[in-house]
Amino acid sequence: MGYTIIWTDKSRKNLEKIPKDTAARIIERVEIIRGDPFLHIDRLAGSSWYKYRVGRYRVILDIKRKTLVIYVIKVGQRKVVYRNLE
Prior knowledge:
The protein is α+β, with helices and mostly antiparallel strands and 86 residues long. It has a single domain, classed as 2-Layer Sandwich (YaeB-like fold), CATH 3.30.2310.20. The chain contains 3 helices and 5 strands. A 5-stranded mixed β-sheet has the order 1-5-4-3-2. A hairpin with a 2-residue loop joins β3 and β4. The longest helix has 13 residues, at 20-32. The protein is globular. The protein starts with a strand and ends in a 5-residue tail after the last helix.
């Protein structure tokens, strides 16, 4: 049984600002990690969140192991995605 993926409002808005072909690729790649996300992600330094690399873009994730849920927190280019993370 795989994880459930929940896109936050902020991550959906981030996707709208990205070119459609790139956004589709990001969505497709996030769906791929549903089975076992820990094979593909790295822990975000100084945080309980994780990062997932998709080309020049990064996807910030919050993973709840007990409930098998992946929250997509933020999506953006590497140079700006790490700003203002809370």
